Amino acid sequence: MKCVHDFRLRFGKRELVPIVIGGMGVDISSAELALEAARLGGIGHISDAMVPTVSDRRFNTDFVKEKAKIYKYNVANTDKSKVVFDLGRLAEATHMHVGQTIEAKHGDGLIFINCMEKLSMNAPRDTLRVRLCAALDAGIDGITLSAGLHLGSFALMEDHPRFRDAKLGIIVSSLRALQLFLRKNARLDRLPDYVVVEGPLAGGHLGFGLDWASYDLHTIVTEVARYLHAEQLNIPLIAAGGIFTGSDAVSFLDNGAAAVQVATRFTVTREAGLPDKVKQEYFRASEQDIEVNNISPTGYPMRMLKGSPAIGAGIRPNCEAYGYLLDGNGNCDYIAAYNREVALHPTAKKVSVMDKTCLCTHMRNFDCWTCGHYAYRLKDTSRLLADGSYTVLSAEHVFRDYQFSTDQQICLPT
User: Fold this and answer.
1) Domains and CATH numbers, the chain
2) Residues 194 and 178 sit within 8 Å (Cβ to Cβ)
3) DSSP assignment, residue 408?
4) Cα(313)–Cα(399) distance, rounded to whole angstroms?
5) In contact, 50 and 363? CB cutoff 8 Å
6) How far is Cα 373 from Cα 203, in angstroms, rounded to an integer?
7) pLDDT for residue 113
8) Angle at Cα 23 formed by Cα 134 and Cα 233, nearest 5°?
9) Residue 247 forms beta bridges with which residues?
10) Which of 46, 25, 50, 30 is CA-nearest to residue 366?
């Protein structure tokens, strides 16, 4: 009976264990988690979501504090168009986050960074270019383009000396999305080095509407694989979303996928950035505790735990300190929703905003508990302790279980 270890992800002459840990933000895919994946011979992602905030946490910098101080005068203003990031400081934060992670890398694996197009930061094109190029400058092994079609992202890097050296890939949820990307970037004569096909059971933001349940990852992977074969495009395909066991992974590897991307089971490892008390919320979750909603101001549906403190919270927009989701005109759907509720309840000391959430603040505080569809099965991967909590796992334990398990078995911790 086959296991994941019987397969290899190949980039040219380089062979890797075909396990990719997804880029969970903000800092859930921590440097420690990515380093473990690389040490074990696979690929680990760090995330570029809110990198200045992550840098403050990792290196005791003051990027957020300094930005908040500069724009303190604008806190009560509903117009956030003047609240912008210092691009030099943004590059500095990215250099620190990426560079020190790469310097600490051991083993035969790789470390990629997950770059989200929807983090528009009040200057979508300029901030995206800085994040991409600073990551390349700092030596990142690869960049995965996510949260959008990224039709112009390759062009933002084309003059960088590592544009054809680093591994560059994109996450798509349909064949059409991949075709649009390839068509748009044909003039660059630079194909993606890999394509992550993310299905409807993935965690966090989805590339589907609320009809997500009518789609199937196996079907999408098959469509994309056939297209790549027909077009004679030798691009490794990585399946993602709802791959909970090593046997699930083998079912894709046996049918043309070069690797699998997994994340949910790593949220409850010691190396993941979630606080321990939140990890226990994930362990305790039942299937009924998981929902797909539209509260994200990005416009994408988002899968998360119903008990997330971010749901219904009516905090004042924190754009002066954060502002990662402001569009090019300084707008965010949460600001509009918050101002609407304030106008409707002028005497209330605190309002509740049910239809949107301040994603920046709640992601930063680990109050937006995004998860994959099978998060309710996490309790079956651990052991219940006498105090009612579950054993927090090591990343190596989960990685090895994916790598060597067969027959839908899950190895419990000793």
Assistant:
1) 4-404 (3.20.20.70)
2) no
3) T
4) 36
5) yes
6) 7
7) 98
8) 85
9) none
10) 25
Distance CA 216, CA 232 (A): 25
For residue 410, give Cα distances in angstroms to 98, 247, 276, 277.
Answer: 33, 10, 22, 23
Report CA 342 to chain centroid distance, whole Å: 32
Spatial contact of 369 and 307, defined as CB atoms under 8 Å apart? yes
Q: Among candidates 293, 260, 269, 268, which has minimal Cα distance to 368?
A: 293
User: DSSP string spanning 69-120?
Assistant: HHTGGGTT-S--TT----HHHHHHHHHHHHHHHHHT--SS-EEEEEEETT--
Which residue type occupies 171? I
CA dist., res. 375 & res. 282, Å (int): 7
> Token pair 């927009």 is at which residue?
317
Burial of 394 (0-12, 13-18, 19+ CB in 10 A): middle
Give the CA distances from residue 262 to residues 252, 388, 412, in Å, rounded to whole numbers and listed in that order.
13, 27, 18
**Paired tokens of 87:** 């691009």
Nearest-angstrom CA–CA distance, 264 and 267: 5
Residues 35, 44: Cα–Cα separation, whole Å: 7
The dihedrals phi and psi of 388, each to the nearest 5 degrees, come to 90, -5
* Beta bridge partners of residue 115, listed in sequence order: 145
* Inter-residue contact 106 to 39 (CB < 8 Å): yes
Residue type for position 240: A
pLDDT score of 25: 85
| Helical pair 395-404 and 246-253, crossing angle rounded to 10 deg | 50
How far, in Å, CA of 323 to CA of 174, rounded? 30
Measured CA to CA, the distance from residue 54 to residue 66 in angstroms comes to 14
Residues of the chain with pLDDT under 50: none
Q: What is the pLDDT of residue 414?
A: 85
Residue that the structure tokens 């609407």 belong to: 340
Q: Are 376 and 306 in contact (CB under 8 A)?
A: no
Strands (E) in 218-344, as ranges, are 237-240, 259-262, 290-293, 302-305
Q: Residue 134: in which H helix or E strand, if any?
A: helix 124-137
Question: Is this prediction's pTM over 0.90?
Answer: yes
Measured over all CA atoms, what is the biggest interatomic distance in the chain, rounded to whole angstroms?
67
C-beta of residue 340 within 8 angstroms of C-beta of residue 333: no
